[in-house]
Design a protein that fits this description.
Length: 279
């Protein structure tokens, strides 16, 4: 069965049969190349004890690859009724024990209640809600690092670059700080826009985020967010200036008052966060 993952109908046939023309407002760019979907699934390693939560299965390309890779269970959350009907009709009968589909908005889900541990999120994310979803998951990790074993996520390359960015680069910002404070971030590989139907405007990148057993440095979520937002909200200004409104002076955290946000490490931001929290 070269190039095949399962005995199911090709995805193009599924799309035609169930009328799944992509809808822009749902961020639908479908990945139909089974070699690519299985490559993404394989980056997550052994899933035999894991419940995978997939946001936005669409016609089911990545979903099938995750199931074929041997995930213990896959719970998919989708808000497009056409896709839910299609998956219920063709995928549920093929994997009656492993596959479950939830009709809902991923932004409204309680991800901890959805699946038992060990749980992992895997998704070709709808680009219009990718960042708020990631922030929501990181917030859970800040409370409980064991809540997820990891995340295998596809983002627009520009967003992936921001997640993985190092200090003193243009892409370094709030998303880099919050992600790297709580997780090890590994960009896996890029996927050319031509691999998608329809092709998006820019390249995509698969990223693995693995929660650290404990954050890189102690701080509260709210204080980290507040200082990162204030500092990068005025990224060209010196910290003395950009943090003034918060009533803190970077010197009191042992940092240069004249430094700019992008020169600070994640640990430096944690120092500012602790200063803000009065600790
Ligand atoms: N996983 C499929 C693939 O790789 O071909 C589809 C990926 S497509 C980029 C994003 C999917 O997320 C679509 O199926 C879309 O309907 C779904 N989606 C968009 N917004 C959503 C939301 N708020 N909650 C759940 N699913 C959503």
């Amino acid at each position: 069965m070269a190039g095949e993952l399962d005995d199911l109908a090709p995805l193009r046939d599924i799309i035609a049969e169930y009328g799944l023309a992509a809808k822009k407002q749902l961020g639908q760019n479908f990945l139909l190349d089974l070699n690519l979907t299985s490559r993404i699934a394989r980056t997550a390693g052994d899933l035999s004890d894991t419940t995978v939560i997939e946001v936005g299965p669409g016609p089911g390309g990545l979903t099938r690859a995750i199931l074929a890779a041997g995930a213990k269970k896959l719970i998919a959350v989708e808000r497009d009724a056409r896709c839910i009907d299609a998956l219920s009709a063709y995928l549920t009968p093929a994997y009656p024990e492993q596959f479950e589909i939830i009709d809902g908005d991923a932004l409204d889900q309680d991800f901890e209640a959805l699946a038992p541990q060990p749980r992992r999120v895997m998704s070709n994310l709808p680009y219009n809600i990718a960042t708020p979803l990631l922030i929501g998951w990181l917030k859970i990790v800040a409370k409980d690092p064991a809540a997820f074993t990891g995340f295998t996520l596809m983002f627009q390359k520009e967003v992936a670059d921001r997640i993985a960015a190092k200090p003193r680069t243009k892409a370094y910002g709030r998303l880099s700080i919050m992600s790297q404070w709580l997780c090890e971030v590994r960009p896996e590989f890029n996927i050319d826009k031509r691999a998608f139907t329809p092709p998006p405007k820019i390249m995509s990148t698969v990223v693995t985020l693995t929660p650290r057993p404990q954050p890189l440095a102690p701080a509260t979520w709210d204080a980290m967010e507040t200082v990162a937002q204030a500092a990068f909200g005025q990224r060209r200004k010196m910290l003395r200036q950009s943090l003034k409104a918060l009533g803190i002076n970077p010197a009191d955290a042992g940092l240069q008052e004249t430094a700019r946000a992008e020169e600070l490490s994640v640990e430096d931001f944690a120092k500012l966060a602790r200063l803000l929290d009065g600790r």
